[in-house]
């Protein structure tokens, strides 16, 4: 829709034409009515709405933040990853847009069908590899010459990185990404039909002094079962959804098993350190609490009840009289 946005000079010229009478509002209205036909490219079928694309953008912005933290810890270097764009294009167009020789991780995402691709620009890939091997993070090798050891190192790095995708997707689907293949030539990928619509999320990536792109390619067939979950309505409902009876019962059970400190406070007093040091068995300490007044019961050091002292089967006990309410105590 970029062609529909007017520049400031075009806006000024349009206002000038209206003010001088060269163009009237009626002429503009008639011209607008004649532009009801829109060009549609059947080779670029739009399978996702703008609302769903925005949801995918939010999800992968969170994923980018998680990746930044993950790679920073693994590489011990400055890392910055941000979402550059989210587009829906034919799979063939995605293959043509990436380098002929690059690093491509193919993931299964059960329980969803199909695969997800993560394509890493060779500059970024070798900068990461150099950092993992103890170097400064420079890019100097060819991806197609990866040794078995280098492949294993890169596989472990990116396999663990997709744990972050599981976390980012948690609100829309419970996936379990599994790395199934490491490929360097995109022409060998025969996942889906060339005309199948895919969502491509492109990330601007900076590793130390090296920059490049990381692309995630998600075929429509993978997202199709969870497309309803990408709507704003679903996100709002998920934020306000009440717990099911099973969840409530589990929460209640966990609360019942929780342990808290309960104390019955007989009273308090102040004595000198000297008196405290010379206390002996049989000494009496006078408290500020009258024997006829109820005791205070504290739960985790917060006053919650009043009680009266007594005995149960020759053991000291207290009987709760009433609950204490008020202030911030109830909120805690």
Which homologous superfamily in CATH is the superfamily of the largest domain? CheC-like
Q: State the helix count.
A: 11
| CATH architecture grouping of the largest domain | 3-Layer(aba) Sandwich
CATH class of the largest domain: Alpha Beta
Q: Approximately what portion of the residues adopt beta-strand conformation?
A: 15-25%
Total domain modules = 2
> How do the strands line up in the largest sheet?
1-5-6-3-2-4
Order of helices and strands: HHHEHEEHHHEEEHHHEHEEE
The residue-averaged pLDDT reads 79
According to DSSP, the number of beta strands is 10
Characterize the quaternary organization of these chains.
single chain
Helix coverage percent: 25-40%
Uncertain segments are none
CATH domain topology of the largest domain:
Chemotaxis protein chec
The major pleated sheet works out as: 6 strands, antiparallel
């Amino acid at each position: 829709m970029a062609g529909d946005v007017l520049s400031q000079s075009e806006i000024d010229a349009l206002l000038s034409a209206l003010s001088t009478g060269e163009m009237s509002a009626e002429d503009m209205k008639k011209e607008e009515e004649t532009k009801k036909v829109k060009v549609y490219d059947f080779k670029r079928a739009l399978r996702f709405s703008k609302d769903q694309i925005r949801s995918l953008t939010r999800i992968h912005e969170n994923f980018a933040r998680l990746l930044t933290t993950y790679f920073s810890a693994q590489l011990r270097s400055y890392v910055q990853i941000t979402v550059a764009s989210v587009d829906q294009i034919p799979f063939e167009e995605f293959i043509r847009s990436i380098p002929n020789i690059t690093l491509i991780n193919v993931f299964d995402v059960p329980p969803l069908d199909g695969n997800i691709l993560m394509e890493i620009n060779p500059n970024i890939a070798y900068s990461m590899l150099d950092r993992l091997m103890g170097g400064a993070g420079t890019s100097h090798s060819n991806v197609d010459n990866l040794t078995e050891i280098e492949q294993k190192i890169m596989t472990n790095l990116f396999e663990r990185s997709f744990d972050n995708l599981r976390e980012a997707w948690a609100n829309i689907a419970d996936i379990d990404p599994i790395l199934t293949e490491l490929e360097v030539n995109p022409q060998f990928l025969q996942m889906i039909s060339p005309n199948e619509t895919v969502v491509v999320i492109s990330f601007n990536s900076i590793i130390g002094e090296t920059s490049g792109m990381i692309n995630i390619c998600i075929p429509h067939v993978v997202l199709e079962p969870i497309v309803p979950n990408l709507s704003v309505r679903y996100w709002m409902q998920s934020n306000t959804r009440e717990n099911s009876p099973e969840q409530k019962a589990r929460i209640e059970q966990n609360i019942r098993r929780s342990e808290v400190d309960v104390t019955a406070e007989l009273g308090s007093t102040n004595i000198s350190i000297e008196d405290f040091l010379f206390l002996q068995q049989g000494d009496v300490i006078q408290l500020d609490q009258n024997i006829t007044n109820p005791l205070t019961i504290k739960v985790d050091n917060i006053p919650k009840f009043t009680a009266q002292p007594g005995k149960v089967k020759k053991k000291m006990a207290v009987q709760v009289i009433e609950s204490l309410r008020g202030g911030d105590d109830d909120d805690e």
